[in-house]
Amino acid sequence: MNLPNRLTLARIILIPVFMAFLLLQVPKGQTLFPHQEVVAAIIFILASATDGLDGYIARKRHQVTNLGKFMDPLADKLLVSAALISLVELGEVNAWVAWIVLAREFAVTGLRAIAAVDRVVISASKLGKIKTITQVVAISAILLHDWPFSLIGLHIGQPLLYLAVFFTVISGLDYLLKSRKLLHK
Predict the structure, then answer these.
(1) Which of 46, 77, 134, 175 could crosslink 164 through cysteines, CB 3.0-4.6 Å?
(2) Separation CA 106–CA 114 (nearest Å)
């Protein structure tokens, strides 16, 4: 278990912690303590930051492992899925948005599994990385209620989320086109 894999595991472990801070409430919808949602947002942002860090360290130190190749994308999908489902429960995100993101993630995971049987690796594309970044930024903005932009009347979370949905669909289509040959076997 090298450092990159530990960072990925930490990201997975932080998911229930993030959800607890975001969702635990006392009766009548009150939070347990002031700024509870800010703590949840900070946990989400820190967990998201480990995504780039674990990959960078693994490549730089030549510590890329099969476990890491499996766990890293899984950790990303679990974190974003947990955040979107929680935000749907809180009424901050429309269910159809979460469905599109989750459907794309299941589809890409399925395509990668089919490719893996033939020992073909479908690596992350630039569109996939843009998708992840826009999802994390949008979710972070929504978690923080558009702060600091809301101080000047700008509400960026929902527009960023729709941009993330756009990149989610486009990157999903990109994976589908890349794996087209595998599907015809």
Answers:
(1) 134
(2) 12
